[in-house]
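Tokens in:
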């Protein structure tokens, strides 16, 4: 200012920008980020907010219609639709808009999944055969056979697993490290899983990015969601008679989460199959129905 080089016009524009109300998507996202970032974990911010807001046009005016349109563009009753409805609703309310997307969130939840929505074993095999890319076919087979999360295919001890055994060690990714076994065991050979073929060589900084890549592939090219393969594995272990505590440990979550999520999935058809299996073993071994059923001859830690 003393040197006579101060730009008063630029200063006025700066003050005007600071004092006026944000209008564009980019401005509101910036303001929301400053308010929200310290309240959630970095991984949550990235998956639940940044990745959602990145699909909005930054230079457009933030309106209820714009937000609603983006929510409605996502498949109904999915985790993605629910996430977009929640995050965009928060952004809209933060901007003072009258928005309520609760009716758009749908019915997605782990407990809301209907057992009849799970793919049958025959459908899984048919879907695997229809996948043309070897790497994605391998990922599909591993998730179906070992009940892996969508990110865990890239956090495996493949060197130790390459031998004759079927025990698979999963390094810490989304949860602590744990081991899993195949159900059905014959799928290891049926899906040629020992012939490891990853779908891409690109490295990502965290497990969420790997999981998102798998989920996007499943959304575009698989007949059912990637997580339905994991859910199917969980129900399959119930039919085999595997104790909940063992199955939960293999999936890398608590027994309570396992029971809350999967026990109710045993619909009439699954229950009947389980009863037939137990009674069939009893008859074959000349046991009375009260005798304890035998578990599959797979070496698992009890």
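Residues out:
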């Amino acid at each position: 200012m003393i040197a006579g080089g101060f730009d008063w016009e630029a200063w006025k524009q700066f003050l005007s920008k600071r004092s006026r109300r944000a209008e564009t998507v980019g401005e509101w996202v910036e303001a929301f980020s400053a308010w929200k970032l310290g309240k959630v974990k970095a991984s949550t911010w990235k998956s639940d907010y940044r990745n959602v807001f990145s699909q909005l046009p930054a230079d457009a005016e933030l309106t209820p219609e714009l937000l609603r349109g983006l929510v409605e563009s996502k498949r109904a009753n999915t985790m993605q639709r629910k996430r977009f409805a929640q995050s965009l609703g928060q952004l809209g309310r933060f901007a003072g808009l009258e928005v309520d997307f609760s009716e758009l969130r749908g019915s997605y939840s782990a407990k809301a999944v209907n057992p009849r929505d799970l793919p049958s074993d025959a459908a899984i095999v048919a879907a695997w055969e229809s996948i043309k890319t070897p790497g994605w076919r391998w990922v599909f087979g591993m998730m179906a056979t070992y009940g892996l999360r969508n990110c865990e295919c890239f956090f495996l001890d493949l060197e130790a697993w390459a031998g004759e055994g079927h025990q698979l060690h999963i390094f810490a990714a989304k949860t602590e490290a744990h081991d899993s076994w195949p159900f059905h065991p014959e799928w290891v050979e049926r899906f040629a899983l020992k012939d490891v073929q990853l779908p891409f060589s690109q490295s990502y900084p965290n497990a969420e990015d790997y999981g998102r890549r798998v989920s996007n592939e499943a959304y575009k090219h698989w007949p059912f969601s990637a997580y339905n393969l994991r859910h199917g594995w969980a129900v399959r272990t119930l039919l085999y008679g595997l104790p909940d505590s063992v199955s939960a440990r293999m999936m890398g979550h608590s027994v309570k989460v396992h029971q809350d999520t999967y026990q109710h999935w045993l619909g009439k058809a699954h229950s009947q199959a389980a009863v037939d299996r137990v009674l069939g073993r009893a008859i074959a071994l000349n046991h009375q129905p009260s005798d304890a059923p035998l578990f599959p001859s797979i070496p698992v830690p009890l």
